[in-house]
Amino acid sequence: MSIRENLKDVQGMQVIRTTNMTRGVGTDEDPVRAVVQYWTVDGELLDECDPHFYEKARQKGKTGKKTP
To answer: Is 5 within a domain?
Structure first.
């Protein structure tokens, strides 16, 4: 089954993408990192991508991608 067969709805919309360098304190547990955020044009935060939390989830096998 292709991805297109599973789609229920597709919409084009404007979003604002920001990259913030303000996360983390510089330790192994909380490294300094860039966090990407997606906002509506009205200023509502839609989502963010924090690579530190993605890596922690990947190590636990919770991202849907195979670990090396």
So the answer is: no
Sorting pLDDT into bands at 50, 70 and 90, what band is 28?
confident
Find the domain containing 25 and state its range: 12-59
Structural domains in the chain (count): 1
Could you read off the pLDDT of 40-56 as tens digits, one per residue?
Answer: 999 999 999 888 877 77
Quote the distance between the C-alpha of residue 56 and its chain's center: 13
How far apart are alpha carbons 15 and 26 in whole angstroms?
30
Average pLDDT, the chain: 82
Distance of alpha carbon 15 from alpha carbon 23, whole angstroms: 22
How far is Cα of residue 35 from the mean position of the Cα atoms in its chain?
8
| Identity at 68, one-letter amino acid code | P
Note whether residue 67 is domain-resident: no
